[in-house]
Write a structure and sequence with these properties.
19 helices; five-stranded parallel β-sheet; single chain; Rossmann fold; elongated; 583 residues; alpha/beta; 3 domains; Four Helix Bundle (Hemerythrin (Met), subunit A); Phosphatase 2c, domain 1
């Protein structure tokens, strides 16, 4: 294509833009009026006239796309004068435009006060369109418009007060901006035409979002730097700084995370491609289809919401990370090849286990405990606590594996110790407070984790058992085996907000030499190379064969038998065992 043809093609595209802008107002305002009337469920006689105005606007748009389509002239020499002087073009545009004007003049005396302003806007747009149609034959006017892109139209010269008010409003919003409040999304509309701004703002507000306007690219850049906007609707063709330049500035700076939808009366493929390549989230051609506009706004704002949520979570994690940074640095020094996340959690678990010195100070019981984390961090919990002559043994298992499970186990240990130090002895109150604490933390973590938990209180030869976990094994002196089912003694912790109605207590009386075994499913579900579980029966048999030994020796016998069963297979779950023996 020659240079002259390229110049004429640019004029043709600009002409389409000039014609489509008032057509957009005709279609947009008529559709909004029809929607508002339908929402009011009012039976008005002029509704067919509004439909006719909308249809005229649609017909005008079809004619523009048919007669002034630059795509059809890409591979051939373009004769702009021949196109714009085509009598069929003028007829196709003048007749529906005049109809719109006639309808508006008929409606203004009849229509309700609330709707008159929009009818007048349609009338103004139609008269402006008629003026543009009459100028079609004057090529020099078209060339002047194209060659003076920096000239500011009268529409934008009286908006200095509007600019200041908008910026004051923007600063006020920024002071109270909550990035996760989805009910107050703020959409910045950038368009040099007051009619387009008003029309688009109405459509955006109809979707439940806040709409704030900028009258040109320069003002838009100033407003974007306040950082309060969730989405930008950016017109392409504007004086001084066009939409492409504003988009380039957005994408190259600290505001590139704000989704930007480009808008234009032009719908050429090249323009769409250019916007997407420059980083626009999407592209919309005027006049907007309300359903399409709603879908594009919803999709882009959902992306923004997810990013804001991610930023919030990262901020919370950063705060938590400060508390373990000292330990984390020490672990990284010891072995930088290990994953910090797994190593920190494993070490914290082991640090909080009861020490042999503590257990040896218990006069009435022999207690031996064992916990070995699997390769992947799990959530096994066991503890032995003494307070005012009361001995409490706890054992539990968090669902799943990984960092969340390990962190939840640490929360449980802290909460149990706090309740014991606070002298809480009633099992229903104890488990209810513990459960609420864990449940609320699980909700904050947006996690689906929960845990089984059993607490055993020992005093004067009596075990008081509460909470739901694996069966408790009791081997009497002499070798008789008893199994205590805990299914009806409690409810998983962190699964429901309240569990007090599910908590009960069972008592087991011990005689000298009796052995009690608590464990997690890492033992009973340990697999050999054939996929066969170790099983509860095997555990009972080993303890039965060794009941006369010390608690430490019984623990060692069980662990050796489990390891022998596993062989060379990978251990997939934590192995936890607690052996009690009445002295």
């Amino acid at each position: 294509m020659t240079t002259d043809s390229q110049s004429q093609l640019s004029i043709l595209s600009h002409l389409r833009y000039e014609l489509c802008t008032p057509i957009n107002a005709i279609i947009g305002y008529s559709e909004m009026l029809m929607e508002e009337i339908e929402e009011l469920e009012a039976d008005v006689e002029y509704l067919p006239d509004l439909e006719s105005i909308r249809d005229c606007g649609t017909k005008l748009l079809v004619s523009i796309n048919s007669f002034l389509n630059p795509e059809s002239s890409i591979d051939s020499e373009l004769d702009l004068n021949k196109i714009v002087t085509n009598p069929q073009l003028k007829i196709a545009l003048e007749q529906p435009t005049q109809l719109v004007i006639d309808y508006c003049q008929q409606l203004i005396p009849l229509i309700e006060t609330d709707f008159i302003a929009d009818i007048k806007k349609i009338d103004i747009a139609a008269n402006k369109l008629l003026q543009e149609i009459n100028n079609l034959i004057n090529i020099s006017i078209l060339e002047t418009k194209l060659n003076c892109p920096t000239s500011v139209s009268p529409e934008t010269t009286d908006n200095s007060l509007e600019i200041d008010l908008i910026l004051d409003s923007a600063s006020s919003i920024a002071a109270n901006n909550d990035p996760l409040d989805t009910s107050s999304y703020k959409v910045l509309i950038v368009d040099d035409s007051p009619v387009n701004r008003n029309l688009l703002a109405r459509q955006v507000q109809a979707q439940g979002y806040q709409a704030i306007a900028a009258v040109n690219g320069k003002q838009a850049i100033k407003m974007i730097q306040t950082g309060i906007y969730d989405l930008i609707l950016l017109d392409i063709i504007m004086p001084e700084i066009n939409g492409y330049e504003v988009l380039k500035w957005i994408r190259s700076g600290s505001w590139r995370h704000i989704p930007t939808i480009m808008i234009s009366a032009l719908d050429e493929v090249d323009s769409v491609i250019k916007c997407i390549e420059m980083g626009a989230a999407d592209y919309l051609a005027k006049p907007f289809n309300p359903t399409l506009l709603k879908a594009r706004l919803g999709a882009c704002l959902e992306q923004k919401r997810l990013r804001d949520r991610e930023s919030s979570y990262l901020a919370q994690l950063a705060t938590a990370n400060e508390q373990i940074s000292q330990l984390n640095n020490r672990l990284l020094t010891e072995n930088t090849r290990l994953s910090a996340e797994l190593e920190v959690t494993q070490r914290l678990q082991m640090m909080l286990l009861p020490k042999e010195k503590e257990l040896s100070q218990i006069e009435e019981l022999e207690i031996a405990g064992f916990m070995e984390p699997a390769d992947e961090v799990g959530g096994d919990y066991y503890d032995v606590l003494q307070h005012h002559g009361r001995i409490t043994i706890g054992i539990g298992d968090v669902t799943g594996h990984g960092l969340e499970s390990g962190v939840l186990m640490l929360m449980v240990q802290t909460a149990v110790r706090t309740l014991i130090e606070n002298n809480e002895t009633d099992p229903k109150r104890f488990f209810e407070v513990l459960n609420r604490t864990i449940y609320k933390n699980v909700q904050r973590m947006n996690s689906d984790k929960n845990l089984s938990l059993c607490l055993v209180d020992y005093h004067d030869g009596v075990l008081s058992l509460s909470g739901q976990h694996e069966e408790m094994v009791v081997v009497r002196s002499g070798g008789e085996v008893e199994r205590v089912d805990t299914i009806d003694l409690g409810f998983p912790i962190g699964l429901e907000e309240t569990i007090k109605d599910f908590v009960f207590q069972a008592k087991v009386y011990l005689n000298p030499g009796d052995v009690v075994v608590l464990y997690t499913d890492g033992i009973t579900e340990a697999e050999n190379h054939l996929g066969v579980h170790y099983g509860l029966e095997q555990l009972c048999w080993v303890v039965q064969q060794n009941w006369q030994q010390s608690a430490k020796d019984i623990r060692q016998a069980v662990i050796q038998d489990v390891r022998s069963h596993i062989g060379v297979e990978k251990v997939y779950d934590d192995i936890t065992l607690v052996v009690l023996k009445q002295k």
